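Recall the central idea of this unit: under ordinary conditions, the amino acid sequence of a chain determines the structure it adopts. In this exercise we apply that idea directly, starting from the sequence alone.
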Amino acid sequence: MQLFVKLLLAHLLGDFMLQPTKWVIHKEANKGTSIYLYLHVLIHFVLYMLILWDLEKWGIALILAISHLIIDMAKLYANPLFKNKGIPFFIDQVLHLMAIYICVYYSNLYGHTMALFTELDWPLVLAIVFVTSPSAIIMGKLLEGMSNQINTDHKSLPNAGKYIGIIERLFVLTFIIIGRWEAIGLLITAKSVFRFNDLKESNSRKLTEYILIGTLVSFGLAIIAGILYVHYNP
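Accordingly, the structure predicted from this sequence is:
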């Protein structure tokens, strides 16, 4: 595990802290002919060696550097195929993590992977999944009749409300699991402050009631999930 953490640290340093925006732009424009692509990979190799601090493990550093080059190059050529540039970015990061994982646990890759799944806290996974999209859909069904009565004359980001709800429920679930119920009150207060101007400008009692009911339902679903998890996993 310590080896994985060290290599992951090197990856984060190389990909996010030691890669100027200028390099990223040059790589996207010139792809495989960009000198910064190879300099970026070289920095990763040096970081791997420095953090490992063991010349006998140069092979791991070399394999990871080569895999980094292949993955980054594939991303540069695949980028134009995606409208949402976040998709290739996250695929790229997942592949880098997989490469590090394989290099660290190659001697018992299957056994270690199966052990991870066996020891996974499945009730926690269930709780996390429940408070994301399933809860959003449940809320949509519960509030469908009310939402039809609300006139929204202001523009907002696509699905912003959905994502805000998911994030707030994840926070509530986390606070319950770690036993910090008071933090939920702070979260409600913070949301109320941010919503105050919208409600003040709209001057609509229906909108105020709709937002209040939606907030309580959202928090309620997360609280139920958290209580059930804590109850069955004391």
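The mean pLDDT is 89.
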